[in-house]
């Protein structure tokens, strides 16, 4: 199996090299619309790059076969992409302290500037929440009814004693603007973050009995694959028992986490394994087990809209051997096998609904009394995504 391990490492390197060189992003366009500064609405398909900052421009098509148009953000009054992304242009007073230029402000109060900005809509109802983000500058805004937008004030500043303090005036603003019992937490857990502020608005909407909308484009997704595989196993006791080629069928459940551009996933794969072997010395081994693999899967080269998704993973294998898993020494003695857990490492590729993977398992010890026998395995599998 050492030779198999070397081939596995070589294959991983070749797989990642080829996909990084030839996998071209096939970006997907989602239904959407943008409104120009004259109020004219343009419907079509818009490339969703899941921007963290406010986009500087968008790619727009009137249809799938139409040419791509580049629309500068300065000419956009409103933007909608799918059901999760909304942007609106508003005239605001925004605090832009000197800390954004590499220094912490010595002024506790906001340093207001007037500007007309494209803002992302986070929550929409009788009270609405907006955000403006460019690099390290993040500012949240609140609007009640049809009134003007007001920035929620949060600011770090340095005192004459060289202490870093925070102006958290946004807490008082929320208490006034979102006056409803239970809307704001009483534990003092104030955070100037999107997640915290959206949870506050959700509580306010629930308190008001209002069917409002909280937008979110950061969510996980579950994929389930059927996984037929061929395992190559060798089992050794005193002397090596012959190599076995074992077809298996498993189900892989993968949950893509809403972090790091959805490149990290949790996965688990239950499968059934069967192995029979014997030696010229009369040792007979019968092994039946349900294997549970669980671990982390990383898509380091994955891009939004790409059809190619190479990955590597590290996982733990736990085997539940059946009572029929035994080792027999001729007609003299029969002992039950108790498999130990091991780690396994794999490299694979997703292409649309299909995929393939090569996996290497650490040598698994099958304990029997005070002795053990070693099971070495590598596998190659295909995958088909059910949903």
Describe the structure.
The chain is mostly beta strands and 387 residues long. Helix content is 11%, strand content 54%. It has helices at residues 2-22, 170-177, 194-208, and strands at residues 29-36, 41-47, 57-61, 69-72, 76-81, 85-95, 112-124, 127-134, 137-144, 150-151, 155-158, 164-167, 213-214, 221-237, 239-256, 264-278, 283-298, 308-321, 326-329, 333-336, 338-339, 342-351, 354-361, 364-368, 371-385. Strands 1, 2, 3, 4, 5, 6, 7, 8, 9, 10 and 13 form an eleven-stranded antiparallel sheet that branches. The protein has an eight-stranded antiparallel β-barrel with strand order 14-15-16-17-18-22-23-25. A hairpin with a 5-residue loop joins β9 and β10 (150-151). The longest helix is centred in the N-terminal third of the chain and has 21 residues, at 2-22. The protein is elongated, with a radius of gyration of 29 Å. The model is unreliable at 2-27 (pLDDT under 50).
Considering the chains and any ligands shown, give keywords for the structure:
25 strands, mainly beta, 11-stranded antiparallel β-sheet, disordered N terminus, 387 residues, 8-stranded antiparallel barrel
């Amino acid at each position: 199996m050492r030779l198999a391990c070397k081939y596995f490492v070589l294959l991983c390197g070749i797989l990642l090299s080829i996909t990084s060189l030839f996998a071209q992003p096939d970006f997907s366009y989602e239904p959407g619309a943008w409104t120009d500064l004259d109020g004219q609405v343009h419907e079509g398909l818009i490339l969703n790059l899941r921007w963290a900052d406010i986009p500087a421009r968008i790619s727009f098509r009137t249809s799938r076969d139409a040419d791509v148009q580049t629309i500068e953000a300065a000419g956009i009054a409103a933007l909608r992409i799918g059901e999760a992304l909304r942007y609106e242009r508003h005239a605001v007073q925004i605090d832009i302290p000197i800390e954004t230029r590499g220094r912490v402000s010595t002024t506790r109060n906001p340093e207001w500037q007037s500007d007309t900005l494209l803002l992302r809509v986070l929550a929409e109802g009788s009270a609405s929440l907006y955000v403006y983000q460019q690099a390290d500058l993040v500012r949240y805004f609140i609007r009640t009814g049809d009134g003007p937008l007001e920035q929620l004030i949060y600011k770090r500043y340095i005192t004459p004693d060289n202490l870093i303090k925070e102006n958290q005036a946004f807490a008082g603003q929320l208490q006034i603007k979102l006056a409803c019992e239970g809307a704001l937490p009483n534990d003092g857990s104030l955070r100037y973050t999107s997640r915290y502020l959206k949870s506050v608005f959700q509580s306010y909407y629930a308190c008001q009995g209002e069917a409002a909308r909280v937008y979110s484009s950061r969510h996980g997704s579950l994929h389930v694959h059927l996984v037929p595989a061929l395992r190559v196993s060798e089992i050794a006791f005193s002397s090596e028992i012959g190599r076995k080629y074992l077809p298996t069928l498993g189900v892989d459940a993968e949950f893509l986490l809403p972090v790091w551009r959805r490149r990290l996933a949790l996965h688990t794969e239950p499968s059934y394994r069967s192995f029979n072997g014997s030696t010229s010395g009369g040792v007979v081994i019968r092994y039946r087990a349900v294997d549970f693999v669980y671990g982390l899967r990383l898509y380091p080269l994955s891009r939004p809209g790409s059809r190619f998704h190479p990955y590597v993973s590290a996982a733990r294998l736990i085997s539940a051997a059946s009572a029929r898993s035994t080792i027999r020494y001729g007609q003299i003695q029969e002992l039950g096998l108790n498999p130990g857990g091991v780690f396994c490492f794999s490299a694979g590729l997703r292409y649309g609904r299909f995929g393939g993977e090569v996996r290497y398992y650490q040598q698994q010890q099958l304990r029997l009394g005070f002795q053990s026998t070693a099971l070495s395995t590598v596998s190659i599998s295909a995958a088909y995504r059910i949903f």
